[in-house]
Design brief:
23% strand, 466 residues, Uridine Diphospho-n-acetylenolpyruvylglucosamine Reductase, domain 3, 5-stranded antiparallel sheet, 9-stranded antiparallel sheet, globular, Vanillyl-alcohol Oxidase, Chain A, domain 3, single chain, alpha+beta
Length: 466
Amino acid sequence: MYLGKALKGLQTLNLIDSTEVPSKLRRCRVVKLLHATIPERVCIRDTPEYEDARKGFWALEQAQCKPHCIIQPCNSQEVSDVMRILRNTGCPFGVKSGGHGRLAGESSVSSGVLIDLKRLDKVELSADKTSCKVGPGNNWKNVYGHLNPKGLIVVGGRASTVGVGGFCVSGGISFFSNRHGWALDNVLSFEVVLADGSIVQASPESNADLYKALRGGGANFGIVTEFTLSVYPYQDLWGGGIAYEWQQADDVIDAFIAYGNDNVGNRDSSVILAALNYEGQWLYHTDIEHLKPTEPDRDSVLGKFLQIPSLGITAGHASLSERTDSIASHTPKGLCNGYYTFCTKVDKRIIKFFFETWRAETDRIIGEHGIDGAPLADINFVPQNIIDAMSRNGGNALGRAGKEPFLVYLLERNWSNPNNSQHVWKAMRATVVKTLSKAKELGKEDDYVYLNYANPFQDVFDGYES
């Protein structure tokens, strides 16, 4: 059945005016309409196909949502057909790309229709090997698997299980960002289905305002059905983790700041600075990546981390797929997950205060409530190289171009019992509030909130360009 005929049938049944139809019945008829339009794509509740589709979520809270049906379109026209039906019936819906969101409703929905983009999994390299069309149904493992054997990369995620869609429209910190910028600044064009079902291209030459808005505006302007990404030469990495005793804080933080401030030396490197609790022992930890297959020189920005006495080093030669699989293995599926983020200007005192505060808050809730899981706090340095890339192709929506380097902080934790969620969120919020207060006291506050790490309690767009 063609969509036009389907909508005409809806009008005959008087279903478009949603106020005249009970919501449950309306959803049932929406399911029937979707099934009549693209029958092989609709997964109905209490069927094996439906339950299998729900397993595609990473976080427990997302997987627990039960949409009335799940529809899995195969191309942009089918997404358009679905959008027109949902728009004209007023049925609530959610959109899932890779399903790596953390909280219920982030890319899931209860009782409405879930549009699952998993079948939009194109990875198509251009003839000149300078760009690649990538569908939002991919995760980075699939993309890297296509490109890396050809000696090519795109600016993508550091964990292989992260999805393409949300990553590219919300930020996209990558191993390769010091060289090429964030993922959103490496999107050459978007194919987008708008709320009215129309399919448009957004690029610097066509729908330039939409193109800019999609580069940092998240999933608020339409459903992206295809990304055209810049492609770069690739070689294997030398990277991994280094663990340090808590007393090494000053040396580790000094090395981290030196890395971020060296705009020449850091172009072939990536560092995440973290504090974590491993089997009851608090440690400092760095994930270092040298974008070459050899160990970095001892006098380089990464070499400084190797010079500090450590508890152990797991770094070595690896492919990009191996490194991103390794990082993904530390964030298993099926648990409750919480993220909380904020930014400040660069200051050693704030970094140290942040980690000490998170340790104290975490120890408190473990002692009071016996909460399991892995508490982690980490920081990404956003150097001048990345900020300069934000002016590319007319700039993005973030409003960071021309500003000084800054730090992106992330609190993340998983736990098994949903009843403990309130305690975890309380500890996270206390850490953020105290650290932001410290930053303000020192004149180092920054109102930007990195969308890929944000939670529903945070006002992300208040810190964007007006």
